[in-house]
């Protein structure tokens, strides 16, 4: 895998390692764009913590900030980095699948 794609996958995995960030991302995916205040009203996480999680998710490329009315920032999910991470996992799975299939064939003989 290309180094830039591998770096993207690494950022995605690091961002998604935290359950609170996964909750924020899941809320955005389920309900659409929202502000940090909107998310704090829906999740058992403080607005300040959500703002920090959104900053990390933005840095990983998983969300994008969009200006809204009255200077409020709305966050929207970006799926491209997740697809890169899925491709990274698919490559790893393929390597293991091939090896395990070869082992299974060897044992069955």
From TrEMBL:
SUPFAM superfamilies: Winged helix' DNA-binding domain
InterPro entries: ArsR-like_HTH, HTH_ArsR_DNA-bd_dom, WH-like_DNA-bd_sf, WH_DNA-bd_sf
GO molecular function: DNA-binding transcription factor activity
Domain HTH arsR-type: residue ranges: 1-99
Pfam families: HTH_20
Source organism superkingdom: Bacteria
SMART domains, alphabetized: HTH_ARSR (SM00418)
Gene3D superfamilies documented for this protein: Winged helix-like DNA-binding domain superfamily/Winged helix DNA-binding domain
PROSITE patterns, per database record: HTH_ARSR_2
NCBIfam families membership: HTH_metalloreg (NF033788)
Protein name: ArsR family transcriptional regulator
Organism: Actinomadura verrucosospora
